[in-house]
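Q: What would this chain look like folded?
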Amino acid sequence: MSTDIQQATDLIAEQAKHIEAVRQEVNKILVGQETLLDRMLIAMISGGHILLEGVPGLAKTTAVKTLSLALGLDFKRISFTPDLLPADVVGTMIYNQKDGTFSPKRGPVFTNLLLADEINRAPAKVQSALLEAMQEQQVTIGDTTFILPEPFLVMATQNPIEQEGTYPLPEAQVDRFMLKCKIVHPSKEDEKRIMNRFTRKQTFDVKKVLSGEQIAVMRDVLDQVYCDDKVGDYIIDIVFATRTPKAYKLDIEHQIECGASPRATMFLNIAARANAMLQGRAYATPQDVKEIAHDVLRHRLILTYEAEAEEVTSEDIITTILNQIPVP
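A: My prediction, written as structure tokens:
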């Protein structure tokens, strides 16, 4: 048993070196967004999708594009607008006049890393065009189903402050995002570094330090990261506290209309193990769960009107739960 643990530790230490190389390349351009980069790496390692929320100018798009360069992956960007059609995302059937037949024309979703920019600006029918791609990693055009390339990762951005001309994502689609990362303004020191670095003409050469094959290896190695039953029970308790708060002596039942789905349980486990892997550990701890809990849960809680009237956010509820549930 100890030999197996040592082998897993050695494998994960090797992957941690690759991850650090990616981090160094991305940080040539990205300044002061370490949490954002960590969450993107967790999504990459675990094969989940990520929703980035923040006001304009916080380098959301730049972060995704820079990561694709460091990973050497095929990258495409879709700017979601009110006049976008589902065919603009997944593709359509094109009529050939010469032989009178239809042939499929693949859309930009056929890529490794898809940036869905300002996803809440397009209507629901366009947003739902991504559902099959995100969940099944396949796309149906006409009567033919096409498998998307591996790895396939959707990173969507949205602006939380503009309400006019936007279409909030339905709960069913939001739930398909493994993580929802809220991006905040940089510190004064980081903003000074940004000013000094990007107010003069400079060329930043981001090198490819990873490949699709190595990402596939990382995902295999992630399966070897150990999650103890006690940590698993801790995850279950956190998720169930969002559904039955009274059972955990929490007076927040009137604030939650609908608790987290079973996807939250699975994603908390996977993301906690991926977080451990980023730090070169072969086992997940309760601290890994705590670090990732807000990003996994914040978009899965539906609050009541009473909570909104009291100005209670999903962040507040998650913090209350984490403070109340005993840590193993």
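The CA atoms of residues 252 and 317 lie 8 Å apart.
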